[in-house]
Write a structure and sequence with these properties.
With 177 residues, the protein is mostly helical. It is built from 8 helices and 4 strands.
Length: 177
């Protein structure tokens, strides 16, 4: 039984925490089952050893599925974990990059009409674009309490009320250049 083996292995380094170890592992495993994973908050005073049991338990999960968060802004979450998609959730970042390269080549050849058409196509892609952050099968581990702005964004996500939540914003830096 993999679960019991993992619990026993973790208990070798995390003493007197059988219930907590089981809660952490169950919570991690729940991220792979259905659309309603478990959220777990470990509350205790500073320096009471909250992080160590978590660190020891998550070693048994794929590294690519774990987001360890020390301190971050909402923009970091969106920029690092998000991908730009169209209304049908198809990625569009490569299309935009290709169109920008094509426009640059055309500007060298003084083909302004074609360049204008490409720029309009880019604007149309941005007009319907969304940033998708796929949290399915991911484990968020907060090493520090999140900033208020990040927490406000995460609360509806962690509630699991909807499989998709939109947070509209304009990402100006993607449109530059």
């Amino acid at each position: 039984d993999f679960f019991e083996y993992t619990v026993l292995t973790v208990k070798k380094t995390v003493r007197c925490e059988d219930v907590l170890i089981r809660q952490i592992i169950y919570t991690g495993l729940s991220s792979y089952i259905g659309d309603d994973p478990i959220n777990l908050g470990i509350l205790a005073p500073t320096s009471e050893g909250k992080t160590y049991p978590v660190e020891e338990c998550i070693k048994y999960f794929p590294k690519q599925d774990i987001y360890k968060v020390g301190s971050m802004s909402a923009k970091v979450l969106v920029r690092e974990k998000g991908i730009l998609v169209d209304g049908n959730l198809n990625p569009i970042e490569d299309k935009i990059k290709d169109l920008k390269k094509k426009a640059k080549r055309l500007s060298k050849k003084n083909q302004e009409d074609e360049k204008e058409q490409i720029n309009e196509e880019i604007e149309k892609l941005y007009e319907n674009a969304k940033t998708l952050i796929d949290m399915r099968g991911k484990i968020l581990v907060f090493l520090e309490p999140p900033h208020r702005e990040v927490w406000d964004i995460l609360k509806p996500i962690l509630s699991h009320d909807s499989s998709e939540i939109e947070f509209p914003f304009v990402n100006q830096t993607d449109r530059e250049g």
